[in-house]
Amino acid sequence: MKGSIRLAFGLALLLAAGAPAGAQTFPDRPIKIVVPNPPGGGFDLSARVIADPLSRALGQPVIIENKAGSGTLVGSGFAARAPADGYTLLLGGTSNMALNIGLYEKLPYDPIKDFTPIGLIVTWPFMLVSRMELPQKTLAEVIDTARKNPDKVIFATGGLGTGQHIAASLLAHSAGIKITMAPYGSAQAAYPDLIGGRVDLFFDNASTALPQVRGGAVRAFAVSSAKRYSVMPYVPTVQETGLAKLDMETWFGLFAPAGTPEPVLAKLRDAIRTARADPEVVKIFGASGGAINALNVAETDAFVKREAERWNALLREAGITAQQ
Questions:
Q1: What is the pLDDT of residues 205-251, one digit of tens each?
Q2: Is the Cβ–Cβ distance between 202 and 164 less than 8 Å?
Q3: Which terminal Cβ of the chain has fewer Cβ within 10 Å, N or C?
Q4: What is d(CA 140, CA 130) in angstroms, rounded to the nearest whole number?
């Protein structure tokens, strides 16, 4: 019996000694960022812009793995179950870290309990765009048409439960109109039908809507944020039109599975601060009107929790679910 106790005690000491050693040598192999959406769109763009400078800061390759399915549920759930060692991270955003709490009765992960924020990266507004041939030229005309013709105005979305779906749903709820939703597998998949005139409007991440507007493929109507979009200041906000209340931005950041050792988190946080300040990162995000999110650790943690609470309350009050 005494031998068994001594053996168990020795194993415990070895395990305790090994944990800090692993943290001290971190990272000694490639790091994976799970993007819970297909290539293209704000999730993917944020991850790919930050990956190279993050790799340089950490001295290891940073690999992007797009794990799409069921909105953002599949990839987010996968990352939540990954080992808490810093080698598998999640690209989290408004959709999977805040909106999903209010959209689903049951999630395959808990955005707050299952993850630890490493750091935010960038924020964009959503931009309401339309097909070029849409007869209505202003948001007021769109809302008036929808009031007179319930369910006749068709909004594309990147899928049920996505930020695009929520922005359109909140606009309709606030304006008191009924619209038809056309869900697609991703933002990129929606554009051929929007440009081809098979759907009318689309509330997309401004970073991916911007090239389409500049290229003359679609028309910009309004943005979802409280302030105007910096690279297109002539486009009004939904709020300032007085037609509906909408204050919504899409933000992105990196998250680690809960339980990741503090020394590992510290290295990842130092690396993301360095990567976020990289001139090329600032240039790329700035060109698309993205605002760099340079909050400290405590501010980031408080922000994510506040967003989750806010959207849970708003969505439940409006009766918006992932099935609508």
A1: 999 999 999 999 999 999 999 999 999 999 999 999 998 889 999 99
A2: yes
A3: N
A4: 14
d(C-alpha 219, C-alpha 210), whole Å = 10
Determine contact, residues 182/173, Cβ cutoff 8 Å: no
Query: Mean pLDDT across the chain, nearest whole number?
Result: 91
pLDDT band at 14 (very low <50, low <70, confident <90, very high): very low
pLDDT digits (tens, 9 = 90+) for 297-310: 999 999 999 999 99
Asked if 31 contacts 86 with a C-beta cutoff of 8 angstroms, the reply is: yes
Cβ atoms within 10 A of the Cβ of 55, count? Answer: 18
Distance between CA atoms of 253 and 259, rounded to whole angstroms?
A: 18
pLDDT above 50: residue 4: no
Q: What is the pTM of this model?
A: 0.88
What pLDDT, on a 0 to 100 scale, did the predictor assign at position 268? 98
Backbone torsions φ then ψ of 218, nearest 5 degrees:
-140, 170
**Residue 291 is inside which H or E element, if any?**
strand 291-292
CB 68 within 8 A of CB 158: no
Compute φ and ψ for 199, nearest 5 degrees. -130, 165
Q: Are 320 and 152 in contact (CB under 8 A)?
A: no
CA–CA separation, 172 and 180 (whole Å): 10
- Tokens linked to 314: 């708003």
Beta bridge partners of 119: 254
Contact yes or no for 67/89 (Cβ under 8 A): no
Kindly list the structural domains of the chain, giving each domain's residue range(s) and its CATH number in brackets, ordered by start: 29-123+249-318 (3.40.190.150), 125-241 (3.40.190.10)
Omega within 30 of 0 (cis) for the link into 36: no
Would you say 95 and 163 are in contact if contact means Cβ atoms under 8 Å apart? yes
Q: Which two tokens stand for residue 153?
A: 């105005």
Helix (H, G, I), strand (E, B) or coil at 74: helix
pLDDT at 324: 58
- The two tokens of residue 7 are 């053996």
End-to-end CA distance of the chain: 62
Residue 183 has pLDDT above 50, yes or no: yes
